[in-house]
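Exercise 7. Predict the joint structure of the components listed below.
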Amino acid sequence: MTLSVTNTLTGEREEFEPGDPDDVLLYVCGLTVSDDAHLGHARVWTHSDVMHRWLAHEGYGVRHVENFTDVNEKIAARAGEEGLGDTEEEVAEQFMSSVIEDMRGLNLLRAEVYPRVSEHVPEIIDLIETLVEKGYAYESNGSVYFDVTEFPDYGKLSNQNIDEMEAQGEADERSEKRHPADFALWKADGVSDAALAEHRKDDRPVDDDADHGETWDSPWGDGRPGWHIECSAMSITHLGETLDIHVGGHDLVFPHHENEIAQSEAATGQQFARYWLHTGLLETKGEKMSSSLGNFFTVSGALEEFGVDVVRTFYLSTGYGSKQTFSEEAMAEAEERWERLERAYETASDRLDSTEARTKVEDEELRATVAETRKEFTRAMNDDFNVREAMAALLELAAGVNRHVDAHDEYDYRGLREAVETFEDLGGSVFGLSFGEEAGGDVSLADDVVELVLELRESEREAGNYERADDLRDRLEAMGVEVQDGDDGPTFRY
RNA sequence: GCCAAGGUGGCAGAGUCCGGCCGAACGCAGCGGCCUGCAGAGCCGCCCAUCGCCGGUUCAAAUCCGGCCCUUGGCUCCA
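Solution:
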């Protein structure tokens, strides 16, 4: 069964054919570290993580690169804020370490490299020089712009049309730029994005004297790299001229990704990325979650409040390409889904421990469910990473396990073992959920203490002292220990 | 204005590429039953869908074609 993906470039679903199946080149557009990461960022991370995991699961070798943009005016602008450091570099460093912490917390597979803009300025300058030499870029007042009219394919990703853009703002001889759609590859010292935007709109002069952070020497004088060029430079450096999958949020299609294509393909003459996958945006109350709108929920806050598994389950209940709404209700539902899976997994592994490997019981229905789950999960994932349907398959397995346990007094060892393995493989390795992972720490001691309390409670129950028994249960509950009485005695989880 | 994505039950959200298995998945909420000292979990069953609107193609459309309405995103920093 082969994987097919929806390619933004063509707008169609295509069969996935990487340059080298043993070395699939995956580039994820990372974030600008000017603030704490929020749940919208984590959505891209989680979906690209699951893509990575699925490719690896299916036998592909994956080389995953994810950049950090640590040179940006918004970062520089925060220098001097309490607790953030006095320079652009320090501020970036600060946020970068918290982002890395978030990524760990989300249980993301590590990328091969996390390149930073500040460490790739020479490569960026080289790339710009190549573009200038080839006639795709020109210098103007110490800044360098990409000439969109020189690149016939400009607009192929976003279906934008240069002529229409031109109609909106006539090019002016006074302008630093030849065409309104031209974009900065290199910004002369003192030139800010804000000034550039104004310039683009009504031709106001581009220089202002505010301090916009560090500057670097270049053939065009001191300055800073433009926004889009970094991704081209870093991905070419680490993944070569043609990469297989480029992932990013939908809001980056234009202009960012369009410009990346223009720069990279103009410079190398090769196709930049084979497949462009764009993730839908996370919304709250009908608008996208974003740093600039200030309506965001931080990753660390969410991890603390809901836990990794619930956060991941939340993301996995919608396809990567669809937009998704964040709300307390949605998180509550994700929690129910995750717990349903987790409980079924625990039920299966507990019963497995108590049944003989050579048990004679065979439950064809259970075994069929396991087989069907694997088949359906694989089908769904290969169908443009349809995680929602893959998740549904896992939930069917949960129901299958519960049915088996409900209907039998003796259990099917092999069937249960296969179910447990399936949860660990598909739910654990592919979805990155914590099946079968003990929380660590003093767990064993805590477990023993709870067992002790439950033993006491059992004797109260046997004696008919239900009030006393319920009180013990309530008090455990208050500590976060959930107690359930079953045919085989009480079980607990926390 | 231009470009893109989307409008499916109380909520959420698959299915739309490749029309029939969709009388519409999975889940949450709600209702009934079983189980239980009780509770929870679980199991069984039920409830709620003119698949945005109008028209067309077809033996057959949520799925294809055309028009319209609405929402979100992009066109400025943005995952």
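Discussion. Confidence is low (pLDDT under 50) at residues 167-174 of chain A.
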